[in-house]
Every structure is written in structure tokens, then in C-alpha cells.
Amino acid sequence: MKKVILTLAIMLLAFGVSNSGVYTFNPSPADMYDLDHGYYYGWGIDHDFSGETISGVRLTITDINNWWPEPNVLFMHLVDDMSAGLTVYEDNNPDISDAYDGQGVLIDAWTDYDGGPRGDFVTISYDFASLGILDEFISYAADGNFGFGVDPDCHFFNDKFSLTVVTDAPEPTTMLLFAMGLVGGGILRKKFSA
Fold first, then answer.
1. For residue 67, is it within any domain?
2. Helical (H) or strand (E) element with 23
3. Contact of 46 with 161, CB cutoff 8 Å
4. Are 77 and 105 in contact (CB under 8 A)?
5. Structural domain total, the chain
6. 72, part of any domain
7. pLDDT for 6-55, tens place per residue?
């Protein structure tokens, strides 16, 4: 009986440790230089998720506020291929435009209607499954590189951008049943071969 309990414990530990993860990514600097309106930004991430099943992705921007007291837009795209790290490009277009238009998947064209020094700093968060873009993220990340294109229509002060990726772990009940089946099969085999 002790062998059975020890075998179950080892199997549960092995399955639980090897098949789950929570990964957090931030650009450097985390606030993307407070998103000056004279530039647009590319944030590329290199990470290999092979052997893991991505079950959840969330992009969060903490304490963001448009510095000018009028509605302004922040365009955000998920893109398939982006040089790792943060790249800043000069934006010479004086009109409201999206430098990443037609590239990847538009996450949001977020508009801050309450900007200016008295405006509210808010945290915005995007759950990719709820947006229906989790499969696109999984496809883009399959080769170990993906990224985000961000184009501010105005200057957007913020504390940080953060991406959280969750990979699945087998349910504890499923793991327990699987382990018990293997141990039970071993006991029956031993009994009938004796």
C-alpha cells in the first residue's frame, strides 16, 4: 500500500510541475516612454511555448491617461512578427492614423474621453479569449516570436504594459484518476501473472 501511495504522489507531482505556467512580459521601459504622440511603437517578444497549451492571454495597461483634455485614440495590434524588444518609430503624420493598419489583429482603438491633468487614470485590460483572438495569438506565438504594434494619437501617460500568458495544467481530478488507473493496472497485472 505504501508503494501505491508513493507512486501516486510522485506521478501527481510530476504531472503538476511539468504542464503549467504563468508567464508575464513587460516592455523596457514598461511604460513605452509614456507613448508620445510623435512616435509609434513595436514591442516584440521571443518566447518558446512549445510543449505547452496556451489557455489564456491578457494584455493590461496600468494607470493610463490621455494628457490632452479631448478624446484621443490609442491603436493596439497583435502582430505575427516583430523584432524582440521595444522599437520606437517617428510618426510624421499629423492626422489621426494607425501606423499598423492592416497588420495583424486590431485589439482595440481605445479612446480616452476624459483626458487632461484632471482626467482619470484608468487600467484597461484585454482578455484575448473574450475578444475572440486567442487562436490568433496561439498561431502567432507558435514560431517563438510575436508582438504588439501601438500607435498613440496623443500622448498617453501610463505606468506599464503587461502581458500575461497562462498555459494549462491537467485538472487534479483527471491526474488522480489517470494515476490510479496506472497503479490499479499494475496491481492487476501483478496479481494475474503470479
1. yes
2. strand 21-25
3. no
4. yes
5. 1
6. yes
7. 554 555 455 544 457 999 999 999 999 999 999 999 999 999 999 999 99
